[in-house]
TrEMBL record:
Family to which this protein belongs: Belongs to the short-chain dehydrogenases/reductases (SDR) family.
Keyword Oxidoreductase assigned: yes
Taxonomic superkingdom: Eukaryota
Pfam family, one: adh_short
Protein name: Putative oxidoreductase
EC top class named in words: oxidoreductase
Listed GO MF terms: oxidoreductase activity
Key words, A-Z: Oxidoreductase
EC number: 1.1.1.-
InterPro entries cross-referenced by the UniProt entry: NAD(P)-bd_dom_sf, Sc_DH/Rdtase_CS, SDR_fam
Amino acid sequence: MTEAIPVPVQKLHGKVAIVTGAASGIGAVTARLIANHGALAVVIADVQDAKGREVVASIGSNRCTYVHCDVADEDQVKYLVDSTVKMYGRLDVMYSNAGIASPSRQTVLELDLSWFDKLMAVNVRGMAACVKHAARAMVEKGVKGSIVCTASIVAECGTEGVTDYTMSKIVMAVNARGMAACVKHAARAMVEKGVKGSIVCTASFVAECGTEGVTDYTMSKHAVLGLMRSASVQLVKHGVRVNCLSPGLVATPMFITGYNLGEEELSKTMAAVYTGSQYGPVKEKDLADAVVFLASEDSALITGQNLIVDGGFGAQAVSVLGQNGDSIGMK
């Protein structure tokens, strides 16, 4: 069982939170930290059932449940939010983190639109669904909640590869469409219950810069930022906050397995990315801390923002991604 992360102050006492993509990596670490900050309940949503249940066991089934949810399917996102509100009475925090990476290193010249469709379904459409339904739940309940979306640093810059990942961040199916479904249904639950909640979406550092590859992934993460910014304007009158978190390069299980990196290759990659940085490499716990900040009252006046946690990578303007044709896309 994973040990609890000690916290000095419980910033989310009594809150009900959903974390998508929470069976491993950033999502799992964040779910545990939310629980340690005093949340009444944390709902783990993922398609990795065995790993998801392990996270529940590490937190405790008395205050944590697992729901199988493919965010590319809006009906599953709606069920996720509706079942959470039915079980716990409200929804305060939606962390829309589920997403997939592009397995290719394609530029726009070789863009595979079939894989682009998959990326968009998850990274863009899925996130839109999460924002939609989370917002509805918050507004209907009168909850002044918080919605946080995971984007990517590539959404703020260009890349020399992974064009589909950058375009969509199933780049659009999971990264955008799936996230949209999460936002939609979480927002509905919050609005219906009058909950002033928080919705957090995971973007990526690629949402803020250019890359030499992962074009589809980069597109998807830019779409996540557009979703977040529109939703934040529309939900501010209901007291629901919507923000994005854009991680830099993080050695998550998805990143390591997606690019089939051995220990030595991983070490070289991280060293190259964070060359000259006094702060990197970024760890999953760093991102979990950022999500708790965006979900708590510490950020009560913050909405419509993309918080970049990249250990100074973007500030260095080092074109590491895509060197020698080995572009890397990530969330």
